[in-house]
């Protein structure tokens, strides 16, 4: 499965290491490369708001550009259609 963030990195021709370095530089803090890898590969989807904002700042994007809302809605509704 290709996550939104993985697709965005590919479109921007960036690696996970590039993302890590941008976060470290722009946010004057870091996000562990292991955490970035888990988020990019869809293994971690419940993370802090500040983590999301760091990623968005580094990628110059909006939260909706990387949040996997479809999967979240399916989990919340147990696959039932929403009204």
Topology:
Layout (H helix, E strand, L loop, with lengths): L3 H8 L4 H11 L6 H8 L8 H11 L9 H9 L6
The helix/strand order is HHHHH
Low-confidence stretches: none
Q: Span between N and C termini?
A: 27 Å
Radius of gyration: 13 Å
How much helical structure, as a percent, in the residues? 55-70%
Taken from the alpha-carbon principal axes, the silhouette is elongated
Q: How is the main sheet built?
A: none
- Mean pLDDT, rounded to whole units? 91
Structural class by sheet pairing and helices:
mainly alpha
**Overall strand count:** 0
Strand content: under 5%
How many H/I helices? 5
Description:
The protein has 83 residues and is mainly alpha-helical. The protein is 57% helix and 0% strand. The protein contains 5 helices and no strands. 14% of the residues are buried. The mean pLDDT is 91.
